[in-house]
Amino acid sequence: GTVPAVLNLHGHWREGARQPVVQSRLIAQARLGYVVLAVDAEHIYDYPTGVTPLTVMTYTNLRALDYLVSRPDVDRERLGVVGESGGAQQAMYLMAVDDRIRVAVLAILVSHFRRILSAEEHHCPCNHVPGVMRFTDEPELCAVPSPRALQFLTVTGDWTAAFPEHELEELRAVYQLWGQPDRLDHRQFDTPHDLNREMREASYTWLEREL
User: Fold this and answer.
1) pTM of the predicted structure, to 2 decimals
2) What is the 3-state secondary structure (H, E, C) of the chain?
């Protein structure tokens, strides 16, 4: 028969998708019975033609979904995506432009843009579309795929510390409008910017529930 599949997107690990934390996640998901795919993040810049790392990565991730649904062992109605840090940023944009994903885990990323982007200082420009703050914000982008199942993992030791009091409440209001508040999940951990074992295990529980 067919089984669910999970696309895994990674942040700024030196070894990319080969980083041990990423590999631990992939192995655990495979042991749970999923077809698991990890793709490498590509950092290509050509601003005059509109090419940025995030546009390239979004295109790559769309093709990754195409590959997964082409496999005879994958149930195309049960697709998930998991991303941490920059990988969660990729997942946020991917779900906004593609409706094939049923469930997502966005770890250690989501906040209002103003916390990480300003004229004085900006965090990881490769993760952002130039000029995006004129048009939208991260909670709005995360709300585009509602009421699909979304889990947010945040920590007290980075810019996601304030997520429970601010961005989460905005998203809860959206899911309440859909009448499906249980499709939105959040857990916060007292740790620096990381995806430790406890956090990874929380993501497996969410995937098992939804897929």
Assistant:
1) 0.93
2) CCEEEEEEECCCCCCHHHCHHHHHHHHHHHHCCCEEEECCCCCCCEHHHCECHHHHHHHHHHHHHHHHHHCCCEEEEEEEEEEECHHHHHHHHHHHHCCCCCEEEEECCCCCHHHCECCCCECCHHHCCCCHHHCCCHHHHHHCCCCCEEEEEEEEECCCCCHHHCHHHHHHHHHHHHCCHHHEEEEEEEEECCCCHHHHHHHHHHHHHHC
